[in-house]
What does this fold into?
Amino acid sequence: MGVNLRFTLDTSGLDGIDVDGLITPDDLRLATETGLALQKKRISEDHKRADGTKLSAYSTKPISIPRSGIGTGNPMAKPKGGRTKRKNAAKVKKGQPRKPPSNYMRYDNGYEEFRQKTGRSTEKDFVLSGNTVHKRFRVQKVDGFKVIVGWPGGSLQGLVAAGLDAQEDGKAFAWSVEEQKAILDTLRTIIASRLRRRGGTGSENIVLEGTPIE
Amino acid sequence: MANVERLRELTSRRVEAILSLKADVPEEIHEILGIFEEGLNLFIRDKGRLTVQEIAALSTTEELVELFKLAGLNNVVAKLEATFASVSGDLLAALEEGGIPVNARTLDEGALGALLDMRVRNITEEVAGKSARLAQQAWLDSTFTGKDLPDAINEAVAELRTNLPGRAATEIGTAVSSVDRAITADIGRKADLPEGDAIVYLYTGPRDKILRKSCGVIVGKWATAEQIAQLDNAQLPDVGTTGGGFNCRHAWAPMLMSIAIANGLEQVTDEDIRRFNLLASDPKAEAA
It folds into this structure.
């Protein structure tokens, strides 16, 4: 399911009311950011997919993490508590797994162990340094009635996020029913207020839809 | 290749700006402008990447004077003083028409606005201090050109050539995050509010063992802008942009108050504000 949104608004029932600018790009941005706020909460605090099921577990497959840390080298992302590797990794005994050189830390119980040893949640929350949250969960552009979410296309972080979503069968960054409702409720609230200011009752019948798109 | 195209586009925009400037300037200044044009093109060629952010940060006459000086045109500054207003206006107009190189697929409007109104520079200077320029470049690259943020930060740290790369990464990374928070929060300031409603901000992010005790008080709750202004993380100014401080992994997300209430979200209380501030300055304050 796509993560961008396309909105449609049918105002054919609004006779006698000025409908120009009934929805603005700022409204669409605010409404989508509202949905993203709930999505961030769902993922990073509640550890859930869009359908309410739990996010999958972190990998327990053995992994080696650079001593310099993951990503930016942020001290908080530096590995702790893993096994230090021997200095010379050139010789490997027959039948033994190849071991990484000493500038890596080894976690026999995988990325889950790395997170546990560095004090992070072992329930998946997509947060290591916070960069994904800041860069991915935001409105990038409003183009007419189309809202584009996330970071520039093609960036490696975008691919990483896509990979994370694939692990969850496309249900991590998909919009939940509650998030879509919050988005549309935000727009309806704004539209109703605007209609009242333009001489309407605010209860006029309008047809508003938001459809996830690629 | 992308950099060459960027420079080409930038140069084109500047030429247009310079030509429109020439049309407004007295005849006797044209020779001086020729020197300026040559100097500016040299400057672009030598420091194209810096020029992007410096040009983009222009919004006052003083900034433009500085650029003229960098182009080696100190002697023309006084003579062109009367035309600075129109020059800066022309350059800003060129920027608004797309003078900043952007990813062909997207244009981050909120980020562009933050660049043009000086928020990027102001926030990075507050958070990253001496590393502000590098933080700005990291933010520009990761926002407009699709460069991965970790790569952008690592390049900035490498350019800094510091003995404390971890600290530098913290400052630069925090500055970039702070700018992104400011861009998101700006949506709330621009909103045309329904009567009786307000924009509030939900504090979202992880709960784990490395969660700051101060952040732990308010994560998952929403606050008004006035309440956020009362928070103090004891590290950096403006909790609305800096969150819990350096390396904070949390973000403020805007929404209508009516929507926050309808979704059963809890509001930050005065007691929460008191505890946040207390624990920010002394994480062990509630240990007993």
About this structure: Strands of chain A lie at 4-10, 63-66, 83-84, 104-107, 139-143, 146-149, 207-213. Chain A touches chain B through 58 residues (CB under 8 Å). Helices of chain A lie at 25-45, 110-117, 131-136, 156-167, 177-197. The mean pLDDT of chain A is 80.
